[in-house]
Design a protein that fits this description.
Layout: E1 2-5, E2 8-11, E3 16-22, E4 31-37, E5 44-49, E6 57-59, E7 67-72, E8 77-82, E9 91-98, E10 113-114, E11 118-123
Parallel strand pairs: 2-11
Antiparallel strand pairs: 1-3, 3-8, 4-5, 4-9, 5-6, 7-8, 9-10, 9-11
Amino acid sequence: QLQASGGGLVQIGGSLRLSCAASGRTFSQLIVGWFRQGPGKEREFVSVIDRWSGGITYYAGSVKGRFTISRDNAKNTVSLQMNSLKSEDTAQYYCATTTRDRWPPINTYEYDNWGVGTQVTVSS
């Protein structure tokens, strides 16, 4: 089971840190991705972190340089640090896991398990 948390209301230019908590003893073997879905939009890829130590990451162009993904396998969590937030970052954010080997997995269909999202609202 996955649960995203940490969303909220923040001003433009502000920061938020999202967390994705997972249950299960095989968490370190899972690739974990973040997606978001804005009002009236399709769900889009944000970032992904590789399994095990998470030494390999990948970001969507729209968030690269502003967002940082990391994982703590001891706590079964993956975090998404979001800085310099823009109004267009407003969305419901979801974390998901996959066991597939294709890299980077940027499509929703590549993920097997999805968590409940958390809302991020960026306003002026």
